[in-house]
């Protein structure tokens, strides 16, 4: 990962960086948000302490895309306070910035972030932020992540429920098999029901076989197909666990 260099490194010669620094010194004087956002990539490519400070200043920019890009750049540069900056951005007034922060907290791969991501998944008003929090919790794993994902099955948005079911399938589908059965039976979105069938098949739990068989009568053909595949997957998982190949 690229790290911040100190000011003893000679400044990169060339018009773009000189223009960027000249434009950004002061009160973010770029005439348009897009120009300020694009300038961050030039500053990141030459990460002197001065340029990193300029990126930090843009965390307070009025434009959400500029703030999100600045945060992404600082985490990518492995700034020493990356975790603090991303955690702080979870409180940004804009959902896009909070979603960016949730994704970056997963990239940082620190289990200490599970509590903040769980709060985001279960409380944030923006569905994309909740989805990104579910994806990051899946990356981090652990009992705290499993508990939050299980509770997240009740989310009103399809995209969030899909991310939650996928997360449970990857970490430990047996952890929430009763809740996944409920999703398989009751969720209004066929894609979510199909994903729940797959997760249940991965669990290898013999108690869910009747529910998978019942799903063979689902009104949606894709859910019926997923249930059939899940039953075969379930049998394969059971054989593997018993040492039968």
Structural notes for this entry:
- The chain is mainly alpha-helical.
- Among the domains are: 1-80, Leucine-rich Repeat Variant (Alpha Horseshoe), CATH 1.25.10; 172-240, Leucine-rich Repeat Variant (Alpha Horseshoe), CATH 1.25.10.
- The chain is 68% helix and 0% strand.
- The protein has 14 helices and no strands.
- The chain has helices spanning 15-24, 33-45, 49-57, 64-76, 82-89, 95-107, 114-123, 127-140, 143-152, 158-171, 177-186, 190-203, 209-214, 221-242.
- Helix 8 packs antiparallel against helix 9 (143-152).
Keywords:
mainly alpha; 245 residues; Leucine-rich Repeat Variant
SSE succession: HHHHHHHHHHHHHH
CATH class of the domain at 1-80: Mainly Alpha
Helix content: 55-70%
CATH structural fold name of the domain at 1-80: Leucine-rich Repeat Variant
The description of the largest β-sheet is: none
Q: What does the radius of gyration come to? A: 23 Å
> How many beta-strand segments?
0
Annotation field: number of helices = 14
Strand content: under 5%
| Shape, per Cα inertia axes | elongated
Low-confidence stretches: 5-28
CATH level-two architecture of the domain at 1-80: Alpha Horseshoe
Assign the structural class, choosing from mainly alpha, mainly beta, alpha/beta, alpha+beta, or little secondary structure: mainly alpha
Mean pLDDT: 89
Distance between the termini: 42 Å
